[in-house]
Amino acid sequence: MRQRPDAGVQELDRRDTIGADMEDKRNIQIIEWEHLDKKKFYVFGVCMTMMIRVSVYPFTLIRTRLQVQKGKSLYNGTFDAFVKILRTEGAAGFYRGFLVNTFTLISGQCYVTTYELTRKYVSQYSSSNTVKSLVAGGSASLVAQSITVPIDVVSQHLMMQRKGESMGRFRVHNPDGKQPVVFGQTKDIILQICRADGFRGFYRGYVASLLTYIPNSAVWWPFYHFYAEQLSRLSPDDCPHLVLQAIAGPLAAATASTITNPMDVIRARVQVEGKSSIINTFRQLMAEEGPWGLTKGLSARIISATPSTIVIVVGYETLKKLSLRPELVDSRHW
């Protein structure tokens, strides 16, 4: 029986389709800004960010206290700090300054908006995910930190308030022994910052924050896409993309945290201790504790980054899928 002339062409088309499907399974599909329903994106985004903040805040507090303390004067490490805070201050001690810190939800939304819009702009000049992520991540951090630093300064001083004493420059006044009303301690700290440093006090450590978080963000996104792409090549074709992303996220977070932790230690000390010079803070830290002082709080930072990054990556990708424009929801591409 003779084969029809177009049978070979049909077979080649079929193989091309199968090859394209396999390639599609291997590649991590990226949902871009123009694919999103913005209203859904912001509503779901705020809810997701709030859940993440609640889960990781205790380790943020522990990390900050470890970075600010002199040597090991109070805590011997992350686990020791966790036990001592729980024993002396109770579970509420892990959430000192949390209400103030929730205002960073605003900067969080500014971050993702800047990130997505910058990716869209850079895509006109480069198709490389690494380039787009590097530029977008750095730009997003610049915008976010301009909003976040004053909130961080206040919340970090509140984190330093221990039972009966303070690890920082300022101490909440509570002469009558009564529990302050909601935001009462915050008002007290804000007034003390104003009296001591004026408005500039709320932007103390701004440069150190930029030198910490712009590189952190600029490094995280390219490493995230790099790890995700490498894992996709090594994994079976039917491995879900979210699994690969959930592994790539913590790997990228650990890498970025290790690279930027020295500046994060300096940032915390500048903001809490009221130092004005990054260089002098660095010199003092090296003189007092040596190079190991630059690793303080790293384990707590990685511990907090690992679960939060999994939630962020899986949640963020899920968020974007939930926020797809209606006409794209049933598209095979996603």
UniProtKB/TrEMBL annotation:
<feature type="transmembrane region" description="Helical">
    <location>
        <begin position="41"/>
        <end position="62"/>
    </location>
</feature>
<protein>
    <recommendedName>
        <fullName>Solute carrier family 25 member 44</fullName>
    </recommendedName>
</protein>
<dbReference type="GO" id="GO:0016020">
    <property type="term" value="C:membrane"/>
</dbReference>
<keyword id="KW-0812">Transmembrane</keyword>
<dbReference type="GO" id="GO:0009083">
    <property type="term" value="P:branched-chain amino acid catabolic process"/>
</dbReference>
<dbReference type="GO" id="GO:0005739">
    <property type="term" value="C:mitochondrion"/>
</dbReference>
<dbReference type="InterPro" id="IPR023395">
    <property type="entry name" value="MCP_dom_sf"/>
</dbReference>
<dbReference type="InterPro" id="IPR018108">
    <property type="entry name" value="MCP_transmembrane"/>
</dbReference>
<dbReference type="InterPro" id="IPR042164">
    <property type="entry name" value="SLC25A44"/>
</dbReference>
<keyword id="KW-1133">Transmembrane helix</keyword>
<feature type="repeat" description="Solcar">
    <location>
        <begin position="39"/>
        <end position="121"/>
    </location>
</feature>
<feature type="repeat" description="Solcar">
    <location>
        <begin position="240"/>
        <end position="322"/>
    </location>
</feature>
<comment type="similarity">
    <text>Belongs to the mitochondrial carrier (TC 2.A.29) family.</text>
</comment>
<keyword id="KW-0813">Transport</keyword>
<dbReference type="GO" id="GO:0015658">
    <property type="term" value="F:branched-chain amino acid transmembrane transporter activity"/>
</dbReference>
<feature type="repeat" description="Solcar">
    <location>
        <begin position="128"/>
        <end position="230"/>
    </location>
</feature>
<dbReference type="Pfam" id="PF00153">
    <property type="entry name" value="Mito_carr"/>
</dbReference>
<keyword id="KW-0472">Membrane</keyword>
